[in-house]
Inverse folding.
């Protein structure tokens, strides 16, 4: 399958992936618009959207894909028409030619003060595309390669080196896991994970094949943490067989951005029970393969969250917002956490200033009792 075939095929996985980007872009753009209007001297008031692997803008049945949906949103706002820069790249020249024509057909295209810039190149360490990884203005990056070549920790840290920059990454788990112990592609794996974590990952995979997927995703998250980056994965299974195909991984410096994306991913999850999601998309035509989290054990997960809160914040008085930020890379959404706090308060296990019943506002301060085990240890 070449890149042209890859982007022309519409399936439920591609539709859900498109929705993640489509739903996040307006939320990100609205916040960044407010910032650049307030402080235009910091970045000339400009914003940018960069798609390193754009495709033609539509699936083979004519349904719109990410580039067109993003452009339609831009054209619906005067500020974006004047201040949003867009960059589209694809390794297939035909995709770029089609995308140019598809974008020009959108109503209002002529209102764009900054017309899209198009490129046809493969992402690699010496690619000229790296010039768009550090635009020095708030930028949303969509990085959707067919494989893993050109992806690196250096690329991620450069893309997210400035305020307001986030990245939505297609992490091709199926191809990456098969390449991790393949010496022929070791150079790519080292760039993707960093040398140190790659060496640890190889050793762990040789010792433990049962939790292979969890080990790989956790290692990638740690690689990003070395660059002070937050991340959260959304898992996709194959359409026609059991097993994980890929992940969409959101990467950011911002707790607010990650909480916004988690809410979007939560809404698109194929299974939600008692407010807790599996953060996966599994075709409804077949049973899902439980992975990492058995969503059927939601009561146990709720109790685990409450225990985590009592243990992690033992002896602290801390704002609700800061509690949520501390748990931003867990499966629990802000709503899950607030429900757990309400239950803990009703059980008399935490205290909180007087507030409206059954609510837990971000600004409230929660006081957690000192953990008895910690008292005994300290004594």
């Amino acid at each position: 399958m070449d890149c042209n075939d890859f982007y022309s095929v519409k399936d439920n996985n591609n539709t859900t992936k498109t929705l993640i980007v489509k739903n996040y872009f307006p939320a990100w753009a609205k916040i960044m618009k407010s910032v650049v209007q307030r402080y235009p001297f910091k970045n000339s008031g400009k914003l940018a959207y960069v798609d390193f692997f754009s495709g033609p803008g539509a699936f083979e049945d004519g349904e719109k894909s990410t580039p067109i949906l993003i452009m339609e949103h831009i054209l619906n706002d005067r500020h974006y028409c004047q201040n949003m820069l867009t960059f589209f790249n694809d390794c297939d020249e035909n995709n770029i030619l089609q995308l140019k024509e598809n974008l020009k057909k959108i109503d209002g295209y002529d209102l764009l003060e900054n017309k899209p810039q198009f490129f046809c190149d493969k992402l690699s360490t010496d690619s000229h595309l790296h010039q768009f990884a550090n635009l020095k203005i708030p930028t949303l990056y969509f990085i959707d390669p067919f494989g893993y070549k050109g992806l690196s920790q250096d690329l991620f840290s450069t893309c997210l080196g400035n305020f307001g920059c986030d990245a939505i990454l297609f992490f091709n788990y199926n191809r990456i896991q098969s390449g991790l112990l393949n010496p022929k592609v070791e150079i790519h794996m080292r760039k993707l994970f960093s040398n140190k974590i790659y060496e640890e990952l190889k050793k762990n995979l040789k010792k433990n094949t049962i939790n292979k997927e969890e080990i790989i995703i956790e290692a990638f998250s740690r690689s990003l943490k070395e660059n002070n980056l937050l991340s959260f994965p959304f898992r996709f299974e194959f359409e026609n067989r059991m097993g994980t195909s890929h992940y969409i991984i959101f990467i950011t410096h911002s707790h607010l951005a990650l909480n916004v994306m988690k809410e979007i991913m939560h809404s698109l999850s194929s299974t939600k029970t008692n407010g807790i999601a599996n953060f996966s998309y599994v075709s409804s035509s077949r049973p899902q393969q439980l992975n990492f989290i058995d969503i059927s054990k939601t009561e146990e997960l709720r109790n685990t969250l409450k225990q985590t809160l009592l243990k992690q914040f033992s002896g602290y008085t801390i704002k609700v917002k800061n509690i949520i930020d501390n748990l931003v890379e867990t499966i629990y959404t802000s709503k899950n956490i607030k429900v757990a706090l309400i239950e803990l308060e009703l059980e008399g296990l935490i205290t909180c200033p007087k507030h409206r019943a059954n609510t837990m506002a971000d600004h409230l301060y929660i006081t957690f009792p000192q953990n008895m085990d910690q008292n005994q240890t300290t004594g």
